Structure formats: structure tokens, C-alpha cells
Fold this protein.
Amino acid sequence: MLSARDVYKHFTTPAGTLEVLRGIDLEVAPGETVAVLGESGSGKSTLLALLAGLDVPTRGSVRIDGQDTAALSERDLAALRARSVGIVFQSFHLMGGLSAEENVRLPLELRGDADAAERARAALAHVGLAARADHLPARLSGGECQRVAIARALVVEPGILLADEPSGSLDERTGEAVDDLLFELVARRGTALVLVTHSERLAARCQRRVRLTGGRLAA
């Protein structure tokens, strides 16, 4: 379903070449939950961007549903993401001028789904926000915004969910509630989860843990 083979990622800086990832190998099976641990600056978010098809490796390959992301056009890559990958960011990334329902509806409308409104409302109900569907993000709490973001990521029924510190910007109590919801929905849907976190407590909820150190992954 999702694999990275001998992946390197380099960035060119004024000071020279910055080597962030070196020889990454990772496979995620359908329905599997995997935590990627690492200190700040270890390259966790860079790895997640590659796994999501938001960027391509300098060397090596990332395959989503068997397709090499580097071999696809931007249009085909966007289509692959739209049907196979959901992403939850730490900072929500909601559209401020759209209501909760409109934010959730957006990925469905972009791919032309006729039942986008109905499915968006159902997704918000699943995360406990049916009564807040018409609210703009500015009128929602941080925890509610992240629930909207989770609904938006899962409404397309992706096989893979990638989450980058999903509760990192929330207070402890709210964060735990969001984490509980995330794992409940993933388990219910049989969705594979790759969770980037620095929290050992949160990582322990995953079936498998890997650690990113010095640009390399270790179990």
C-alpha cells in the first residue's frame, strides 16, 4: 500500500547541500498503524511529505498503491493523493473563509463527487460536530478545528492516513480526546496510519514504532 525504498532527500542551501534523509526503507501494510518518532529537526515532516506525495525523493522511490510518485505528472499525483491519501496537520490548515462543512466538502468537490454535501455532513457527525457544520474556523476551538481536519482527511475514505503531530498544538486534555478520536476512526475504517510524533505515549498506541535519527530509520 505504501512503501519507501532507499529514499534520500537533499536540499541545496547557501552553505551547501543539506542531507536530511539517508537510505530510508519503510513499508506500511493495509490497516497497519506506524509511529515515526524523532527529535525536532530530525526530518520527520520531510519524510511525511514524501510519503504523501507532496514532494519527491532526491534518490530512491516512494510508492503509493504501487505507483512511483516521482514517475507521475502533477495532475496524476494529485489524483492519486485525492483517492488514496488523507493528511492531518498539526496546525489544522483549514480554509478560514469556509464553514466546517465546506472545508470537509472541498476534497470531494475537487474530484467531482455528486454527494459531497451529504458525505461531509456525515463525516462531521462522526467527529461529533454535526451542530457546528455552519461555523467558520474562527468560531471553533482548537480541538474542534482538528476534528474538522480529521473529518476532511477521512471523508474521501483513503487507504492511508498521514498525521503530523495531530495533537501537538492542543492542551493535554483536548489533545488526548483528539488522539482517541483519531485511533477510533482509523480502527473502525481499517485505514493505515503513519503518525509522526515526538510523544512516546502516543507512539505506544501504534502497532509498530520506528525512530528517525541522523536521517535514518531504525525499529
Observations:
- The chain has a mean pLDDT of 92.
- Residues 172-189 form the longest helix (18 residues).
